[in-house]
Amino acid sequence: MIDMTHERNFLHPDWPDAKWNISGLFVYRPLVNFFTQMMKNHGMAHVINSFHGAPDLLWNGGRVNANVKNYPDAENYFKALNSLGIGVYLTFSNVILEKKHLEDEESNRLLDCLDEKCGLNGVIVVNDLIADYIRKKKPGLKLISSVVKNFIENPKGDIDWYKRMEDRFDQVVVHTDHMFDLDLLDKLDRKKSEILITEGCIYKCPNRAHHQTLNSVFNIAQYEDKKKADEIMEEIKVIRETKCAGGGANLNPEKNTQNLRTCYLDHEDVKTIYDMGFRNLKISGRRMTIYGMAWNILNWVFDPDQAHTFARILYSRIEHKVKTEYTQTAREKGVI
């Protein structure tokens, strides 16, 4: 067992000044709670810029709504993270929101839980309508341009598009294809750019924009047209089963007929981008298992020579909590 004292530096030596935006705000609360407390205890909470995520809401669009529950104590939960200097970013990234959807009660209720005065919190958006609405309603919140906005509007890497987004938003998540274009990266504002390092989609995926749009359509149809939602889900399943070659650090060779790489960055990729001056790094994965998510955090944030020790600690602390919550949920659904 390593000596876990405040004097020891456990951060990854190749990017110690990285500021991390980490997924799991709602899906992995036991992991978020213990991880943040551990980082605080060892003087490392300053490297966590924010946690992001969303429960099942009409405004959510980056992932399909899949029984991710809101928390009745969301406001206190957010304040607890803020007290550690850690921001909360809500992923209100539905592509096709219309004016009528701005009145959604549950989405507005969650938005109201964010403290706009502390300067830490924000909302990740795609749709300009919701961006304008939030800017007017809670001007103290940061607005982050989602990678999905980039997927939809800027697949070819137009630098003028990036400059417009840098003027409009507090941060812009770089298109995962563009991370390999160093000439383009070099033209971006380092302080406003965020690099998503764990995107499992294939490089230049031809289905990405359509797939993301279907996620948004499904999430709205769940509330407005159940039959349409079922039809959209069937289309999403077809894409996943027959076209998606990605899904993580590895690719499905049968679907990856052009032998393209995944957009999940490797060590050399991250080191190159970090050495260019980029410090805002993002870890996604709110549909992974909690242990897969923990692996991502440990192996990117911590020194790899010591990550295994933190993994054992995390595992022992969250295993019972996760199993208890899973059992309770399964009983509520009548599965067990």
| Form type | globular
CATH topology: TIM Barrel
What CATH architecture do you see? Alpha-Beta Barrel
- Largest sheet, if any? 8 strands, parallel, barrel
Indicate the proportion of strand residues: 5-15%
Termini gap = 38 Å
Number of domains: 1
Helical content stands at 40-55%
Describe this structure in words.
- By secondary structure, the chain is α/β, with parallel strands linked by helices.
- It has a single domain (19-201, 265-321), classed as Aldolase class I (TIM Barrel), CATH 3.20.20.70.
- The protein has twelve helices and ten strands.
- The strands form two sheets. Strands 1-2-3-4-5-6-7-10 form an eight-stranded parallel barrel, surrounded by five helices.
- Helix 1 (29-41) packs antiparallel against helix 12 and helix 11 (290-301) runs antiparallel to helix 12 (307-333).
- The longest helix is centred in the C-terminal third of the chain and has 27 residues, at 307-333.
- Residues 1-8 have low confidence and may be disordered.
